[in-house]
Amino acid sequence: MIHFYHVTKKFDRYSTALQDVTCHIDKGEFVFLTGASGAGKSTLLKLILRQIQPSEGQIVVNGRNLNAMKPSQLPFFRREIGMVFQDFKLIERMTVFENLSFIMTVLNVPAREQKKKAYSALRAVNLHHKLNSYPLQLSGGEQQRVAIARALINDPLVLVGDEPTGNLDPDLSAEILQIFSDANLRGSTVLLATHDRDLIRSSGRRVLTLDHGRLLDERVATPERPAQRGESLFGIASS
Amino acid sequence: MARRLKHLDEPDVPSNSFTYFVREAIRRIWSSKRASFVAVSMMTISLLILGIFLLVAENLDRAVEQWQGKTRVNLYFEPEATGEEIAAVDAFLADSAELSRRTLVSPEQALVRFRTYFASVSDLVQQLDDNPFPASFEIDVDPKFVATAAFDTQMATLRKLQGVEQVQFDWDWLARLKRLVHVINLIGLIAGGILAVAAAFTIANVIRLTMMLYREEIDIMRLVGATERIIRGPFLVEGFVQGTIGGVAAVVLLFAGFVAAREALEPSRSLLWGFLFTTFLPWQKIAALIGCGTLAGWFGSWLSVRERNEE
To answer: Which of B224, B227, B309 to mutate to test the interface with A (most CBs of A within 10 A)?
Structure first.
């Protein structure tokens, strides 16, 4: 589903965000991407969305080689990917419903269908009663759930989250993770960038760890026993 | 059938992109109304200036056409011309098919006309011992005949007849006036054109400003897969609408100015200026004026959205 082949991304001569990264995420997988701040997580996600292009290497997402993609093909490619951001990126002047319908208008979904889709997407994140609220009238967790509903509204093949729980408390983080897990169960491949160790530990999912732009290791997180706490950097065991 | 979820019906969303473009464009114009007002005002002023030139030229042109339609030759006799000499000229005119529509104006009739048309200065003539006006013929000529060589020959012959002092036909100044109309049109087009381009750039800057205000939304739209057409459409419509409003406002102001000027300078009060405000622009020129605004607005918005800002 997502394939990186020896991908390097340099922003200038002295700044290398990613260095020779090769990794594969299969269809239907739920994978965490972790690493300290500045490790290259956001760069990797931007490469998947083709917001930026690699300096070297090849990236294939949903069977499409992003290096060879024409600008005119980009919008249609991005419609297959749902993106959730740490800062939600909701439009403040629009209501919750309008934030969702705005995206569907952009995607040319007929008005009647928009209403149905918006309602069911909000129901999936348990916010169908907040249709006419504005983002600033919602809590952080609620705003993030709206952002997830927006990402899910087009039934994406790939769901990407860039620190979606970064601004939330642990209970809300678990709730958000559950929504991602549900989307994964419905068939979306999920890639979640986070440095929330507890969230990763409790998941039992595969983890990609970046450090200074290099892919350190690929492991499967295992729920931690009290004795293991502090044994490794991210509390994850080798696969 | 009753709707199940009433609250879903409240925030309606257009299902086609054109409605979306127009609605978004109007909303964006409203949200940056000061800047939009400046842009529309610039466009209005530019097109108003162009419209004033077109209006003056239109009326001048119409007047020239009217005067050209009355192609008249005035033949003046010498003061001491005899009745036989006048009769000889009359016979010559009667023999010519093209010059036969003639009216003899006696010195007395000429004096009466002068007193009627120039009442304020008629006292000047009364102080003279003799009637200063000679007898004359007013000859109506077919405008097509005027352009022929035969006309020149006939005029030359008339000038040589006994008792004839002067043969006048004033088409030279009409030709000069016609050239003036062209110059006025040209000045209007150049001045209006330059100002319209300036207005288009103002619109371009206003739209750039709006694009900066909406940058976050544009980024989100790109990330969720909006095509450039969907992203740029509202901005193009915004320029289109601003230009059209500018064009319509210019026509409305021009018409209001025209009505006011016509009332202030009605022909009875001012022969000199009255004819400049007899008719308003024809619908084709009104449409062209509004079309100029629309086109300039669209051009301005196209300038600002043509760059792809993503990467």
So the answer is: B224
